[in-house]
Every structure is written in structure tokens, then in C-alpha cells.
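Exercise: predict the fold of this chain.
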Amino acid sequence: MKPAIALTLFGLAACAHGPARPPDQALAEWHDNFPLAAQELCLTQQANPVLGQRLRQWEADNPVVAQDLLQWAATHPGEPLPAFFRDHPSYQADAWFWGSRPSPAYLLLDWAQRHPDAALSLADNPDLLSWAAAHRAC
């Protein structure tokens, strides 16, 4: 099965000139295109199952913010999480973001900054968060 955090970031992927691919096909293609990033997500989920569950729940509840966080992290290497909120003042920094390390937000931020192409690929899929949050596995 695919990484739980990655699954949170996946969903239906539509080709601009063709029919939508099934979510599992889009996920498999992403996994094939970014094997190291996918493996790291899987290992992170296995090492931190409680954090993985918290992250999946938050992403299911906040797909737009999660998508923006992935895009921002991928394009702002080395920037700390507070800078995301500086750049997105309309988002509220709730307790989920400020939890003690390793918090789900920091895990996602760190992963996206280490694997920016994989993170952008996930964030660019408009339906991926909603589908993946409901289909967790590693």
C-alpha cells in the first residue's frame, strides 16, 4: 500500500485533454515517479502512526490549506513554518500547527522541502487531498 501521508495528498487526477484517471492509478503513477519521496512518507507513517493519523485528519478537514502548505514548502526551502503564516495571513495558525515536534505540520513541511518536485506534483492535483484522506495505507 502507499504512504499514508502521501495518500492524504492524492486524489483523482484529471488530464487536461482526457478523462480522469482512477485515484489508485494516479497514486501508483506518483509513487513510480517519486519512489524516494514515497518511501520516506511510508517510513514516516510507520515510525509515527499517531502523527500520521493526525495529519490525515487535518488534511481531510483543511484540503486547501494543506495544498497551499505543500506548494509553499516546496518553493521555500529552509523556511520555517511561521513564515508560511506570514505569507498567508488569512490562515489561522491553530494548535495543530504549533504542537510539539515532531508535529504533523513540521513533518509535512520538512518532507515537502526535501522533496519539492514530489510535493508540487501532489499539490497540483485538485482532487487529491479529498480522495487520499479517505484512503490511507502504507
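Check your answer against the key: The first helix runs from residue 4 to 8.
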